[in-house]
Design goal:
The structure is a single chain. By secondary structure, this protein is mainly α. The protein contains 1 helix and no strands. It is rod-shaped.
């Protein structure tokens, strides 16, 4: 910052926010929910459990 060659170190953090949503509904409803458009950079994972 003062231009005298002092060592400066930047610190960066990557924060990951996760949400878990359990749906107990018919497959038609799940298809409607999962057909929404998602912004770039947002990862969505869908797991279907047979019960």
């Amino acid at each position: 910052p003062c231009g005298e060659g002092s060592k400066t170190w930047d610190r960066f953090q990557m924060r990951i926010h996760k949400r878990v949503v359990d749906l107990h509904s018919k497959s038609e409803i799940v298809k409607q929910i999962t057909s929404i458009s998602i912004e770039p950079g947002v990862d969505v994972e869908v797991t279907v459990a047979d019960t």
